């Protein structure tokens, strides 16, 4: 057995060496982030790791689904089953391309050219759990943070394979068997199905299939919105980086973030036309307006706004070329207008304490309508009407979900005799 050199006692020595207080073996100095390839989900995990002080000590793995062609119709399957089915089809069809006719359209399934290789390692539960066990004595416990449905089977397996060596945080509700994780962090609106209002909307014979089916347990931490990386330190850094481009702009600076329609927040040309008209109405009170589209924004929506404002000297439209100004906009904007579909963009903007106006909230249904309602009740957003004077500012207690979630992680670790070490 190797000799153990006990640390020198601090001023108030308790009589118990640090090694037995969880000091050496209970110090978490590293994290594994398991992503699903979607920025909205991965940013939540990275944001939490950053808030815990481990941003420079994280490794990123990804759970990847087969993409392209017929695989786009198989995303409802569990990722493990999807991969097995895709492999079976590939073996049957060989390495040649083949075509499937779906509603008269040619669809190209998996091919060598479209599958590609990622720069990020594929998440393998056995590998990560083995690493956690074998490095525990030298490096201490491993923090595992993941977000999104496709990561659930990986993180739950890691917890099962290395229960004494990892602390697993699953972000977004995993729907069932929450005891598979040390902690689940999820927004309050994920529990909307349990409310009396929601129960009235669900036929009785379907209620057993709608999740979650029970109130949050001790290991569930509820937030208002999504976690993110836009903390005060990050915004100070990007404010400096974007100073030369954004600081000289006339004030107030109105930032407009346009997402894309979803199943529970559908919209199209009508919302784009309404947004264009409302922006025209408030343009007189703005020094400058900057419009950004997301990857989900339909071309039919973006075209309307581009046609309306592309020649207006007061309006800048980011065309997707060059550095993404999103974080710079969060730092330098005086007010925001955001489409209601994006929980992430709203959560980030509402953490700044600056005025946030929402368009399209009336189109949201189910738990996303509940999310919009909670933001309005907290006073962090107002509905965009086109009658606003953007130069008139208002404020509110900013959302602080990421920091609060990190505090809960620290408390849970302390109960286990573990702690985050950032030095």
Automatic annotation (TrEMBL):
Organism listed in the record: Carpinus fangiana
Cross-referenced InterPro entries: Elm1-like
Stated name of the protein: Mitochondrial fission protein ELM1
GO cellular component annotations of the record: mitochondrial outer membrane
Superkingdom as given in the UniProt entry: Eukaryota
Pfam families in UniProt: Mito_fiss_Elm1
Any one of the GO BP annotations: mitochondrial fission
